[in-house]
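Reopening closed ticket. The problem is back. First fold of the pair:
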Amino acid sequence: MTYELTPEDKIGVVSQHLKNIQYRKYNIELSLIEENALTSPDSARIAELNADMALVITQESALLTELESLA
């Protein structure tokens, strides 16, 4: 039995991935707030979090492009 996803199914999947990315972005933002609140923030940790944010933003952009192609 073969089942093909409808465009609506695909939009739902992409939308869920985008929601997960929003959670990841917010978690990174909170981690940055926490790190910067320390008496001695770890600059390496901040750089790592900023790199993570850049990656998430890139992924979000790719998913938004995919979502547009499905609309």
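Second fold of the pair, where the issue appears:
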Amino acid sequence: MQAGFIIGITKSMLLLDLWMVITSILEIKYEITIYKKVLFFAIGLFLIFYNINRYEKKYQYYKSKWGVYVGNRKKIQIFLTFFIVIFSWVFVFILGFIFNKYE
């Protein structure tokens, strides 16, 4: 269940990153209203519950599938997993500073 939650949060953050990139590149000026916050929150909750239901009771399947990784390949997979999760959070702040969203 924790993995499904983390996957859902990461997808939500990547969706926010994509939104920030598109609006900044196309120079779309918008005001963040309560409706947009509620919509993004609802999408985030949907992604969390969708991923929890999708990956529920599949731990043994994925454990057997990923259990064959050893040595450097396992280290690379672990690094990529943490990199994606951390980068999705940090990228929001990087984009904010690049496109002056925090003024």
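Update: turned out to be a display glitch only; the data is intact. The helical segments are 2-25, 34-55, 59-66, 71-98. The two ends are 38 Å apart (CA to CA). Please close again.
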